[in-house]
Structures are given as C-alpha cells and as structure tokens.
Design goal:
single chain; 406 residues; Thrombin, subunit H; Jelly Rolls; eight-stranded antiparallel beta sheet; 5 helices
Amino acid sequence: MINTNEKYLWVPSMLVFVALVFGDGIAAEPDAKQVPLGSLDFRPTPERPVGWRGDWTGRFPGATPPRTWSRRTQGSTTDIRYQANKPTGNPGAGSQSLEYFTVKDWLVAGPFNADDPAVNLSTDFLHGEEKVEPVRGAKAGDTTWQFLRAGIEAQSRHYHNEGTCGDLNVDFVYVFGDLPEAVADEKPTVPLNHKVAYAHTYLYSPAEANVMLRLSYSAAAVKVLLNGTSVEVKHNHNVEVQLQQGWNRLLVKVASGQAVKATGQNSWVSRWRFAAYLEPILPVSYETKNIAWMTKMTGRSMSQPIVVGDRIFVGSNMTDLLCLDKKTGRILWLKTNTPYDAMSDAQRAATEIREKVEPLVASLKELDEQVVRDINGAVSRIGLPSAAEADFDKTLNDHFLLFSRA
C-alpha cells in the first residue's frame, strides 16, 4: 500500500488489477498554502516544492484514508466462520472469517507411532475419529489437543516465500519436533517418519452450502473426515463438499514422511504438513467496499506505480508502460517497449529494419490501441465476474498471440 498524497493506490504484484481506494471525498479547492501535507487536496507549489512523499519523512499527517477496503466473493464462503475450540452456540469473538479462503485455527494432537503410516492410516488412534469433537486441553488418545494457528511463524522451515511458505501450513514438525540446521549430510536428529498426527477445526455455515475443499500437503498420506464422513482428496485439487447448516467438523489426519533437504537450499524441509482452503464453486461474482475502480492489467505487474497529478504510471507485462486517469481508472495510453525503441536513427534506416520490423511495430501499436479499448470497456468498481474475467483473459491472450505470430 502506498500513499499517493491524495488517494491510496493498491497494485498487487501477483494479480492483474489496479484498485484505487477513496477517502472521504474531495472538498472545494482550498488555498494551496494552507493545505496540510498529505491531505486529499494538497498540491506542490513553488513555495512548497515537496514531492509525492509529503515532507520526505514518509509521514502524511493530513491523509484521511479509509481504514477498511475489500473485494470479496459473493456466496457461501463469504459467510463461513471457523474456530479451533468447540463452539457453544453461534459464532462469537473467537471465530474467524476466511482470509484468502484459508483455514488457520486448529486443534492438533499427536504424535502417534505407526510402523508404516501410509499403510496403517486407517488405525483409529482417537478411538472414534468419526465422532470426535475436541476441546483444547482435552485428552486425545494418550496425548492432548493443543491450539495451533497456521502462519509464517509456525513453520519448521521457510526458506523462501514460494517454498514452505507458499501455504500457511499446519506443520507438525513445528509442533512436535524440530529440524536441525543442515550441516553437510547430517540427518535430522529427531526421527520424523513412522508418525501420525491429527488437526481439527469447526466450520460454521449459516445455511446448507456446497463449497470446494482444497488441501495442499507434503506427507506420506492424508485422510480427511467432514462431519465423520470420509472425503477423498488429492494434493492441491478441489473436491466439492457439502456443509450442513450450523457447525461442521473437519478432521485431517496426516502421516509423516521422512524430512528431505530442500532443492538448492542448505536446510531440511518438513514432509509432515498441510494447508486447507474452502473456496467457492465457480462462477462467482464479487462485492467491494471503499474501492473506486478496478482496471485490468495486461499481465503481471512487478513495478511500483508513480502518481503525477491526476495520472498514474505503472509497468505491466514486463514490457508495457500504462498511463491511467486517477479519477476514472481508464487507460489513457499504453506503450509496449521493444528493442526497436532502443535503436538509433541509423539502425532504423537499415533496409531490413524498414521492411521487416517497422510493419510489426505499426501492428503492435494497433494491437495496443485495441487492448486499451477492451480494458477501458471493463473498468468497474467490482471487477469482472469470474466467467467474464476468463473470457476477457482469453481476448487479451489472443491479442498477444496474434502479435507474436506476426
């Protein structure tokens, strides 16, 4: 999130939207000399020649941004709540809503020894897995249920953000043991295979609803029970499940695999972990709060936006530079940069360049103009529904494929 000195601009680097979030509105044009730094109406003047970072300290004492903003799916997952401890009624302060569809709060129990966990996963260490309703601190076989909130800090190792931190794992190595610092070919000091552990959470749905359950895991084997009924899961694949009205019980049983050394990393990585997600069934629509507009980008954007007056400049799709109208979100122009732009006049005068490259550059300019028209026709406060977004992505890809084939 960056403060633009007038509005707040959010450009997610791994997504393809730009969302502009308004504050309390724009007042009548005030005296520029009296406006505080960082306020909605502040403008640099020759007497106060400060930039978009306010007074260069990074502070914006006059800013009045909204404290909440969101874009959420409309549907059953929006209303789902979850909590680790056994509920005594309707969801209260101890329950959580899904964040990026992730279930984070669990009660975990174990470890239980098993000669061959992958084969003996059917062994009921709780003496009634299908009926279990755990309470924090209560007995679980010969162990007790303990609380775990899945997060970055609750991983036994996180060597980079797309490795073991690509998901918010229930990491049983973090709970029940530890992995040593890797030294040459040293093996983990605590045996991490031949073990089984459980994780349980309660899910609340205000009405009967079908959702997609997805588990991302690294383990010898996994077993899932929803309200006592077995659910067949595959790694990172969605499976449709039905939530009953009220509270539901989700139990995940995980068999450990031997820890392995991370590829290209000098550390051992847990193979006794999983992450759980509850996702809506497509297609879906969205609802937003405090978002003024959303504009589709031409591709992944890794650059920081720059705000100059009423215009926003942002890079996209590796080679594209876009200029947007800050008030409406419409693209004013799009420039796709190629090696041709770096050529000198003498190089461009070469016969081969004039005959072969310049027609392609002209075609690219026409395609850019068409893409701008297509994107501007889809600017809105809530973005496109998922089905329309898929069709729109195909249209953009067709544009780019047409140019690449040329």
